[in-house]
Amino acid sequence: MIRSACYNDLNEIISVINDAKNLLKMSDSDQWQDTDGYPNINTFKEDLKSNYVYVLEEEDVIVGVVVLSFQHEDAYDVIEGKWNYNTYSVIHRLAVKNGYYGKKIGYRLIEYCYVMTKKKGLESIRVDTHEKNITMQVLLEKIGFINCGYIFLNRKGVLNNLRIAYEIKVE
User: Fold this and answer.
1) Cα(61)–Cα(105) distance, rounded to whole angstroms?
2) Which of 37, 76, 91 is nearest to 163 (CA)?
3) Domain boundaries defined on the chain
4) Hey, which of 17, 56, 128, 134 would disulfide with 64, CB 3.0 to 4.6 Å?
5) Which CATH number fits domain 2-169: 3.30.70.890, 3.40.630.30, 3.30.9.10, 3.30.830.10?
6) CA-to-CA dists, residue 86 to 1, 42, 123, 137, 167, angstroms
C-alpha cells in the first residue's frame, strides 16, 4: 500500500534512506555521501510539512519512500540539454529498504507519482540522478524516462553537483 507519510514514520524513513546511502557508497557513488548528511531527518521534516512524502508499506513495514514535489525546481532552470515539457512534478529521494531490492518497489513508487502527476494535469515528471547511480538510471529508462542532459544541484555541501536529468511525458 502506498500512502502519505506522517511524522510517526520518520525513523523508518531514515532507516530506508540509510540503506540507500550504504548501497550508493558500496557502488562507489558519492551521491548522498555529502558532508551535511543529506538527506537527513531535517530534510524529511521539511518534506512532511509540505505533504510531499509517500511511503510504500508491506505488512506494516515501510519498504520504500519517495518525495513528489509540485513546486518549481530552481536547479532545473539551467540544463545542458533540453527539457521537453513546461509543466512538471519532481521526484526526489526515492529509496528502497535493504532486503526489498529487485521487488519493483521503486517502480511502484514511480508509477504512483505518475498517477498523482496526471491528476494534477501536469505534462511531465522530472527527476535527476548521479552518473554512478546505474540502478536508478536503468529503472528510469525501463519505465520510459528520457535522458534530457545534465543539471547542476545548487545545494551547499554536495560533493558532486552534476546530475543526469530525466523526464517522462504524462499521458
Assistant:
1) 13
2) 76
3) 2-169
4) 56
5) 3.40.630.30
6) 31, 30, 7, 22, 11
Q: In 4-133, where does DSSP find H-type helix?
A: 10-26, 41-49, 105-119
Which ranges of 50-87 would DSSP assign to H, the alpha helix? Answer: none
Q: Could you tell me whether strands 162-169 and 88-96 are parallel, antiparallel, or unpaired per DSSP bridges? A: unpaired
Q: Give CA–CA dist 158/37, Å, rounded.
A: 9
User: If you count DSSP H runs as helices and E runs as strands, how many of each does the chain have, helices first?
Assistant: 4, 8
**The C-alpha cell of 107 is what?**
517502480
pTM: 0.95
